[in-house]
Amino acid sequence: MVTENDIKQFSQQCNDIFEQIARDVIGQEPVVQGTVIAMIAGGNVLLEGVPGVGKTRLVRTLGRVFDLPFSRIQFTPDLMPADVTGTNIIVKDEAGNSKFSFQPGPVFANIVLADEINRATPKTQSALLEAMQEHTVTVMGVSRKLSEPFFVLATQNPIEQDGTYPLPEAQMDRFMFKLLVPNPSLDELMQIVSMTQKTMEEVADKVCTGEQLLRMRATANQIPVAEEVLKYAMILTSATHPDSECATETSKKYVRVGASPRAGQALISAAKVMALIKGRFNVAYSDLAELAYPVLRHRIKLNFEAVAERISADEIIRMILGEVDKKYKKQL
To answer: Does one domain contain both 210 and 257?
Structure first.
């Protein structure tokens, strides 16, 4: 059972984490908060933004703050699956006999940065699927468990399309959040340049271990969710499907395919963490509304009409939220 003291400790631990990250990453508070929420909840994150806005630096800083083994995979068109997962190589023992020995790939770390993930071919991208969902890697018929906690934090550039491969739908669905990394404001840009003139190195200190992170996750899992709030989250997920019983006029008009059940799971898991960060003992409707954007924006597929009218996924989510609130909140 979660006590009031547990909530205070959780909230204080998160404040310490945010404080240390802020020493290396200027601004980007929603992105930082979203990434930390996903890590505590056990999800993977896709960071989308133009080059130079601090995506890679954020991930490196997280490795320092959580004191976890960190590996970086630079995705390129010639990257092979074995370069990610590892492979069996022939080695000689003391007697001079040859035998196969497994050489682990960079995916065998606690935090894996998949840099520019959309530059690799679908075959290589799919090498991460099993690791992201089951936290195991299977090579030559042998499954190996990855050490916990395990996260994939991937980055992609939204404007450069030459030599890129769109992520398969199955892989997009395995990211708990898709976070949009905006350009810094003028004040933030001044601070960034001033800070990097002194040193380009990260200076954040360790404030949380892997064991503490797993304990925080266990605490979050025990947070109660009222049946009405749970139903609201499921209605919201179902409302993104144009052919479902909860479909809204917006989804019927602009959505081709709605969000999967993983979206509902992600909404509840992340909302529990957000409630604790805010020092609350229960999940609120406002938590779900705030998290709907990073959870749903990469899971709903827009139809031709939405593309033709240049309506973004976030705008569609905003309209669906409004319609769901209007239609269902009074009934809950």
So the answer is: no
